[in-house]
Amino acid sequence: LKENFILKCLTTAGVPEMRFDIDCVGVEETDLKDHLPNKENFRSRHAGVMHSCGHDGHTAVGLTMAQWIVDHKDQLCGRIKLIFQPAEEGVRGGAAQAASGLLDDVNYLLGAHLAMMCPTGEVCVYPEGVLCTTKLDVRFKGRPAHPTMSPHLGRNALACACTCVSELLGMARHGKGLGCINVGMMQAGEGRNVIPVHAQVQLEVRGETAEINDFMVDQANRIVKGTALAYDVDYEVEKVGEAGELNNDPELASLVTEVAGSLPSCERVVQHKKLGCSEDFTMLATRVKAAGGKSEFFVVGADRTAAHHQREFDFDEKGLETAFGIFKGCVLKLNGI
Question: For the chain, which residues make up each domain, given as ranges?
């Protein structure tokens, strides 16, 4: 599967683009016998990773769209792009693809997610609670020493990281809206009889707005710096992922509403629903809007056996039909058909 798959048709219309994320999650898939991927033999073949977010469904919809476009190319005009995006988990891929310039000629950008708290048959046009986020890796470097003969010569990176994590989780929140922090991993030390030299912390902050998210990032950076100074260790902070605010364009939202409402598989179109997640589709949308284009990200209901990022996750495949129908219908409408 190529990272980017671009189909060119006869050119007169604007450039619509559809984005499909393709990556999995670092979760071990369940061994329960009634888990459909186990029953039908399509569970993950790789230990410690599985499609527990529905991106395999997004990939399937994207490939089906590619085949449909080829089959109907004589009816279509313009230049149609399909982007298969890696690394949405951890919001690492969107910014890189946006910076590549692939979207700089795009007039209309469409993206979607399966399930996401919506039941099968429902489509949400304006997902709310899609949070800005920044992912940070923090590395502390101390100094080794014998813990009894020369402890005064050592600088304990592990102790610094432990204090830092406690302070991060207790940081002040913003009064204007929701702000969240999670420390997902800490690794440290070399051995029980050596003052720890190295420690690494992986964390994320999220904010209801860019202002709140930036406030959380600034707080985190100050806490890291302060604890490093207190323990006299060196440190570095690396931003490894980010996503922004989701602001759908009313014109494309109306288009999705119209198309979804015409599909037999869609029982209900809701305009607003609060989800509570982050999406680096926002980085692609920001790039498109900066060049004068429009974007829309919608949610297609697909009842789940478990919540996203859980080892029992699977989605109702009826949602695939609805998602494909919306993408196809929007392409037809944008082609004046």
Answer: 4-130+244-334, 143-232
